[in-house]
Amino acid sequence: MLKATSVLVGLLLSISVVAGELSVSLRQVDGQAMPNTVVYLTAKDPATLSATNTISDKSAIMDQIDLQFSPHILVVQTNTRVRFPNSDSIKHHVYSFSPAKTFELQLYKGLQANPLLFDKSGIVELGCNVHDWMLAYIQVVDTPYFGKTDAAGQLQLSVPDGEYQITFWHPRISQEEKQLSQSISLPAQQHFSLNLTNPLLPDLSQYEQHQGDFSEYE
Amino acid sequence: MSWLKLSLFSMFFSVNVSAVELNVLTQFNYVLADDRASWFERDTGILAYSDNGFHQQQSLAVISDSFSSGLSYEAVGHYYQQGEQHVGFSQAFVSYKPLSGDHLRWRGRVGVFYPKVSLENVDLGWLSPYTYTQSAINSWFGEELRTTGAELTLFSAGRSRNSAFSFELNTAAFKANDSMGAVLTWRGFALHDRQSLNHEQIPVAPYPTVIDADGLNHPGYVEPFHEFDVKFGYYVGAHVDYFKQSSLRYYYYDNQADPNAVNPQRLYGWRSYFHSLALQHKFNANTRIVGQWLAGHTVMGEHFVAADFDAWFVLLSHGQDAHRFSLRYDHFSVTEDDVFPWDWNDSHGAAWTAAWRYDLNDNWQVGAELHWNKNYAHSRQSLNQDRQISQQQSMVVLQYRFAAQP
To answer: CA B70, CA B112: separation in Å to the nearest integer?
Structure first.
């Protein structure tokens, strides 16, 4: 097994790839920056794909803080183990019915639940059966080239040269598929800008605001 | 050694996975009481305390657990120094909320519990986190209202539909709330935090028309959670929430009791129904307004005793760091509508309650409360008391709470 892994690592190292910086910019219909949006690049070339589609041994965290999921949107590579700690002093009951990962997890106060393996790509919508206003997304992507736009709607990614499909996702973006998933060629297109043409879906971030204690019978 | 490590690990693990939660809260106070003693002393005051001094205000323990299936249970036990029954439970129920990805979902409860009529009593064990002396409406609910039955809820969480609005429809069928309305009619509304326990007897002042042999010949107490007939009571309720900022709850409750049902103790069924509308709006994370309005009717016997009742309150509460300041105004009245003019049941009043509560840490809290009311009860005349009185009550309270997973 050790031998096989060494061979695999050796093979991977021997593939010479030239990584370049890709700068992505996303703007709303009114010109304002669009933050917190998932951006990922999937390679079109099978050779590049096999080079990038390595076994991930990564982990990520979806926490529960002040009766909210944190972060609201998490993006991970396939085969990432996600831990669900509970930073609150009360219990949560996290669940998902999304095809990419269907599960339920009781998160008792003071107990560490085992991490869950996310091995299928897709969007996983999380809810809490105790607190109906809690909602979060885990986007599982089949590539190591992903990130989220910052407050200025910008993202810098280090990506090897090649032909890719660049895809954008955010729960409030309502746009045609062909605009949200486009071809990109690197290093030719080192700057990629997308201006949304449709207005965003309603802003529900008020659910995330702290509204004081004693909201409901607990 | 490894087997030892393994068994120690499993012991530790099995203790930790126990999800049973125990929440305990206890309050001690020093009270400057009003001169007019309370119904607990078989007098006609509408405040709970009759003597100045230190009191064990209340202790309660809530035990609960929940399971992956969506099943959970909760039981609330109490110890009170005041009243006829010192130890007992106020609620004990099993809930089922199946996991579902649907936008319209359901859940149910079976057991003994409160309908979710109140936006004031949202702390542990149906206590108010705002004032110690609760509103007239919810003081009465704590005394005479309880569901012993099954509740079905249809709900739609706005978050799952990408909407700012959440909805909830509740309906329940219940038994054992057939004397509801008796205490309210004879004594009138009162303001306190003493919830009635299972099988509790609530004392009634010795009004001649109530207890005399040539009157109703009723015992000097009421048992609010008695079943006198075979009929089920019901309630329906609707909740609307805007984000977590604003809430509105409407309930219609009807115990459907047979007002002519009487048991060997000569306790009667009281047919009672009411509308309740509760509102809450949070101006921001610190400041909120809570209000409730209640209107209903109760009747006992062949219209021997009958009354309309209505009440409302407005509460402002502001939390600043570990401090919480609350101010509430209550207005309440009972208007009789029965066949015996010599049975005086009119009562009404208004009250101000101001409270400060300060969390010293997660466990300890100190607080102080001032209460003033002016109230009228026609029935006091039958005991040679002034019908109209003003009452004041002040208290400082030390509260301790903890949560544990035994």
So the answer is: 19
Interface contact B209, partner A, CB < 8 A: no
Whether A105 and A166 map to the same domain: the answer is no
How many Å lie between the alpha carbon of A124 and the closest alpha carbon of chain B?
12
Interface check B101 vs A, CB under 8 A: yes
Are both A97 and A133 inside the same structural domain?
A: yes
Tell whether A111 is covered by a domain: yes
Establish if A148 belongs to a structural domain: yes
- Whether A213 is covered by a domain: the verdict is no
Residue B68: list chain A partners with CB under 8 A: 93, 104, 106
| CB contact B258 to A (< 8 Å) | no
CA A26 to chain centre: 16
pLDDT grade for B7, boundaries at 50, 70 and 90: very low
Q: Does A201 touch chain B (CB under 8 A)?
A: yes
One-letter amino acid identity for B277?
A: L
Nearest to B188 by CA among B146, B137, B251, B142: B137
What mean pLDDT is reported for chain A? 86
Same domain as A148, residue A45: yes
- Best B95, B159, B170, B281 member to test A by mutation, with max A CBs in 10 Å, is B159
Kindly state whether residue B360 falls inside one of the protein's structural domains.
Answer: yes
What would the two tokens of residue B381 be?
């005349």
- Chain B: give the shortest CA distance to residue A216, in Å: 6
- Say how many domains are in chain B: 1
User: What is the rounded CA–CA span in Å between residue B144 and residue B274?
Assistant: 13
Neighbours of A97 (CB within 10 A): 16
Kindly report the nearest CA distance between residue A199 and chain B, in angstroms: 15
Q: Would you tell me which residues 41-100 of chain A have a C-beta closer than 8 angstroms to some C-beta of chain B?
A: 89, 91, 93, 95, 97
Q: Would the CB atoms of B159 and A171 count as touching at under 8 Å?
A: no
Determine the 3-state secondary structure of B249 from DSSP: strand
- B172 within domain boundaries: yes
Of B16, B70, B244, the CB nearest to A129: B70
Q: What is the pLDDT of residues B175-214, one digit of tens each?
A: 999 999 999 999 999 999 999 999 899 999 999 989 998 8
B128-144 tens-digit pLDDT: 999 999 999 999 999 99
Residues on chain A touching B116 (C-beta within 8 angstroms): 217
Indicate if A45 and A114 belong to the same structural domain. Answer: no
Domain CATH number, residue B145: 2.40.160
CATH number at residue A101: 2.60.40.420
Please count the structural domains in chain A.
Answer: 2
How many Cβ atoms from other residues are within 10 Å of residue A158's Cβ? 11
Provide the CA B100 distance to its chain's centre, in angstroms: 32
pLDDT (tens digit per residue) in B33-83: 999 999 999 999 999 999 999 999 999 999 999 988 899 999 999 999 999
> Is A157 contained in some domain?
yes
Say if strands B364-377 and B388-404 run parallel, antiparallel, or are unpaired. antiparallel
Contact list, A210 vs chain B (CB under 8 Å): 285
In a domain? residue B149: yes
Q: Do A32 and A60 fall into the same domain?
A: no
* Domain of residue A181, residue span: 19-53+144-199
* B156 touching chain A per CB within 8 A: no
CA A147 to CA A166: how far, in whole Å? 11
Q: pLDDT, tens digit, for every residue of B86-117?
A: 999 999 999 999 999 999 999 999 999 999 99
